From TrEMBL:
Protein name: RNA polymerase-binding protein RbpA
Basic and acidic residues biased stretches: 58-74
Keyword Protein biosynthesis in record: no
Oligomer status and interactors: Forms a complex with the RNAP catalytic core and with free principal sigma factors.
Coiled-coil residue spans: none
Provenance organism: Microbacterium panaciterrae
InterPro entries: RNApol-bd_RbpA
Amino acid sequence: MATGGNAIRGTRVGSGPMGEQDHGYHADRIAISYWDGLGNETVRYFAAGLPEEEIPDIIDHPHSGLPAGRDKENPPAIAKPEPYKTHLAYVKERRTDEEAEQLLDDALQQLRERRGQR
């Protein structure tokens, strides 16, 4: 039969007597609510002595992935991602009308030449 050390099951070996005061549970804290663009609320806790300018106005909202602000009436706007564009779409945007007409004429000429060879 194997036996372990004298540590109580579920405790860290070598940890000394630590009370709640050592963890900071009794420190004065303030709760600040943040709302994202969908109306979801997140509450964050900050030290009571923290200056107002060090408390962020916008945070990342963990549930929706959208930013959340402290002002419930005017939350940050929902991010609108751009639609995916292929490389060809970007290339087509760069061409002028004259270049496009020239490319079309070249393609039509090549098709006519191939049809004439058969």
